Amino acid sequence: MEDNYSWKELEVKFEELSDSLKGLRLDYQWGSVPPIYMLASWNDNISLNRFKETSAIAGTKLLTSYKNLSGFEEVFLSSDPITVWYNTLRLFSGQFNIDLVADQTKDGVSIGAVYHGSINNVVSVSAMSCMRLTILKTGTSQSKKTSSENEMKNEKKIPKRIEKKIFQEANSTCPFCNEREISLLDIHHIMPRQQGGPNEELNLILMCKKCHSDIEDGIISTGEVMKKKHELIQQKNIIPKSTNPAPIFNINKNKIDSSIIAGTVNIKGKRTPKMLYPIGSIGANIDMNNYIKYLIDKYYKYREADKSYGRYDDFHHSEIHNSIQSRFKTKTYFINEKKFNELCEYLYWRIERTIQGKRNKSNGIKNYDTFDEYCNK
Fold first, then answer.
1. What is the pTM of this model?
2. Phi, psi of 138, rounded to the nearest 5 degrees
3. N or C end of the chain: smaller count of CB under 10 Å?
């Protein structure tokens, strides 16, 4: 059955369920209790069953074609297709966070910790995971053609036209650390050359030499790389290309030089002008822009405070922006101002889910100012 659907078709199937299952959450519990997945916050059992059926098809497809991929062993700890798919979402989502840490006791004696984590808007995460697996599929198809003994190293040079597209896609900037020095940038194969990873756009991503080394050392995971590639693809589709690109001007006293890179003016001795957000976006509205920054800073502060209460899961400042982009389909400050209240509600909810936020709420302490209160200050 799994070969009857491409990842693109499965992506569409998941997206079709997004309205009827908006807010569907995937919970996972593990530790001193048996690991178990639970779906929560649905209101449409027919759509929920369709989601489970589509998840079973996706999991079967993984079991059939992807089980031998290195770096994804955690996905295949179970032979149940639905569990395999849920494991994939946990690995790929970039949103999975420990929500609760508690001790299980017996006769008043601790017998081990119980951990609980969740992924929100799991239907949207499923659609994105299909996109990421499309990237992997490119290498998988190539590897089957090149060698029956799994020795399919790609030694071909990346074509210049492809190389140029990869630099343009990332705006000649490492998407992990924002390094812009051209001499320090590399092109990385998501599916490794040693496994037949092709020189195709979907399988290539720009990054600096240090981050490239971090991937090889396992500091940056394959899941994180695929997630970043997906963001670059999304961003490329959001921002229209100029039909008449203007030259760069580097102004240094009386000397003016032009360059082929479009749309930027660098004035030596002065800061580069900030990006202008589109009219009608949250970023273009100074009050909305500042209030969202205020809420995000509040969330960062509370997550840092959670460490003092024993919350030790890894936390990256980019996580909240990645979650917002996953939910709203565009970067934080590019979201239409009509969705400002929806974005605020989401950030309120994230703040109140922190341990510090829960403690404040139980003690009657405000976690944040409302938009009106913030603007009046």
1. 0.41
2. -55, -45
3. C
